[in-house]
Amino acid sequence: MEAALPLPVPSLDPGATKKSRIQYVYFFGAGESEGTAEMKNELGGKGAGVAEMTRAGLPVPPGFTIQTEACREYMRDGSNSAEVEAATITALHRLEELQGQKLGAGENPLLVSVRSGAAVSMPGMMDTILNVGLNDESVEALANRTGNPRFAYDSYRRLIQMFGEIVMEVPKQVFDHIFDGQKKKKKVSEDTGLDADSLRAIADSYKQAIKKHTKRTFPQRPQEQLTMARDAVFRSWNNDRARTYRRINHIPDDLGTAVTVQAMVFGNLGETSGTGVGFTRNPATGEHEFYGEFLMNAQGEDVVSGIRTPIPISELNRVLPDVYRQLREITTRLERHYRDMQDFEFTIQDGKLYMLQTRSGKRTGRAAIMIALDMVNEGLIDQTTAIFRVEPNQVYDFLLPRLDETGATVDVLSKGLPASPGAAVGQIVFTADEAVQKAGPHKKNPVILVRAETTPEDIHGMEVSVGILTSRGGMTSHAAVVTRGMGKCCVAGAGDISIDEVTGQMVVKDRVFRSGDWISLDGTTGRVIAGKLHTLPATPDVPELKKFMSWADPYRTMRVRANADIPRDAIHARDFGAEGIGLCRTEHMFFADDRIAIMREMILAPTKAEQKRALNKLLPMQRSDFLGIFKAMDGFPVTIRLLDPPLHEFLPRRENLMVEIATLEVTTPRSAKLKELRKLLRRVDELHEINPMLGHRGCRLGITDPAISEMQSRAIFEAAVQASKQGFKVLPEVMVPLVSGLKEMANQGAIIRRVAEEVFADKHHRVEYMVGTMIELPRAAMCADDIAKEAEFFSFGTNDLTQTAFGFSRDDINKFLPSYLEQGILKQDPFAVLDREGVGRIMQTACDLGRKQRKDLKIGICGEHGGEPSSVEFCHKLGLNYVSCSPFRVLTARLAAAQAAAREKLKDKKLDGPNG
Q: Which phi-psi region, left, alpha or beta, contains residue 360 (left: φ > 0; alpha: ψ -120 to 50)?
């Protein structure tokens, strides 16, 4: 077993932490570091990582990290304080003294990188600038010092481009056009084919382009470059892609980024120099293998950006075997020290290895579970730590679909790298904006984003796409890393595919595919397939998943149920580990072809007798459905909601009826059908409401038309008794929707209980049952103590509760939600992530009042928030008995509930669970 990294005492003034003044800058170098691995909040993941590696004596270029508080102050004030400026200059002088160099000056100029790094990993979302300190004079000094003018001007043109894009906001395409033009002029296909004169010409053209677009010159003073680069990295915390990534991953906006300034080492110095990124285990599968990619004669951005397709890291053993062995040794030590799979970056300069970064690596859900299981078996972590190594949403990876190739003609166009597993079938789009447009506000239209390589600016398009295809880049490219984190399918580096994003064409094997054409991706094998294949759902019957969940489930204090309306869905729910049905929506049963006509017959009945006849036809149908669900949920509770939507939803749309009537008035004006349609239109007009969401629905239907509640209650209890007689354990819970006060609840409760007693007497058999209500109106929450006099359970219907609390229409919110998110008025879509500040307080009030009245009041949640991890955690804090969600979210809810309970226990012990 490898020894853990040594942890020497850092060389800090013992009284420094007691000083009231903030330490803005932390230095690292020569085996000493002022920072530690525990300082991620201050130094960001990157800064904390290099600090720890330096303290352990690993080969890390020296430098200093400007902490996140400086970023927060900069974003608040629009400038840096005198203390930050002074601390930066002091640290720079210390670095110059340590290196025996001056920034951008002298015969051996010091050059630095300026890198971002937040406490939470946000790969590629913020900015990095390399080779800071180069100017028209120091580039010549660098060329003379190294005897390699090509290297010097390659470094200079990279600085000018990065600085121009990031600091001076010149569009990337401007630089790409110049660079590609020079390659075409010199008739070379690879960047490495350009000589020193060509690169010098490119640098000159870049500077001219900057002046043309900004009316400013590229700065020649090294100190000015450093200051501007630092501030640009601070600003990148709030760029569009970073904000989008934080929204997707629920990262707070107020963390800020640290800035690490580090002495440059050069992977583009020649054929014994290179750069690479890697993982101590396979981030796609979790296999315990050394995994990564590198490029010789390149700088780091060449690998992660996907500009060049890199080489598997195993080849480094052939190219530079001593470096390879040293890298294996170092990264193995890092993994054992951090007790987690590490994502590392390295540079080789003239055959010497330097470590630039280490952090916990992004991984797929399957890989996360495999790594957690293996590390427990290896003795690196315990089971409690293991359950925090998997994000709740990651277990959904086990439910990723696979392609159904049965009987299909599989037209394989290309084979790339299997960067992220699963299957994706969708229409081609070539830009992120096009992806957002074609996917639609609810992502109903499946699209596959096809790019030569993705960039961080594509994050909003990647979010809405079902899959990603790139023609360049490798397994550690931006596309691969981000899609693995998102749990989306990705095929990268499909090199025989040519993509022209300007004309909107993908060409492969002389075949042309355009925007809107269908393709299928197999992220497990890397295949790109023409056409629209079908997909097959995965099953949760995976031994590794079962074992992992067996570690997590014992921590849970909340049950996890599923929302299911038919027996088939109930069976699926049990397969995923559901412990009951939290919402069975009876209205969905009425829309079947053999039932909608009877439902309309009931609605249109002119007399109570005719209405009762129609209800008697529906009764056996409902009873049959409930019987199937009770059998599927043998031993678990089933919450059945009485009819909720307004009756007009079961009738044809008014506009369609009017068109059909107008047509018949011309073609067959005396037909019986015309007479029937006119009658139907009159009833539709009678039922029409200006605001049906707040209209004649829910308990109001049962109060004004009690026969409906009576029929549904009878179907429920007859089915329950029948199932019980057949040996099934049934636990029916009858739920009254849209109650706002005690009298409504009492009215419907009396009907339900009366019918139950009638059925029990008639069938000579009793079953235990409960009567409760949905809390989906603010008034119900405020009157929860009164309602609890009649209701034996509450279930929060957070979809409608969110609508009525905010005054937002769930169907219309997308008209303004993007603006609200962009301007920071809302952090998340409140229908996707529970609003704790408003809706959460309403829920807390209802819980407190309800349990004050009825100590044993059962409380759950049945909106889709019940499957969203942060919402599940909040429900745990409220003390809910259960959450309920769609069957495919049950695994996620189980893990989220387990982590919430485990985190609480660890907090009580003053331990930090997620960090092991």
A: beta
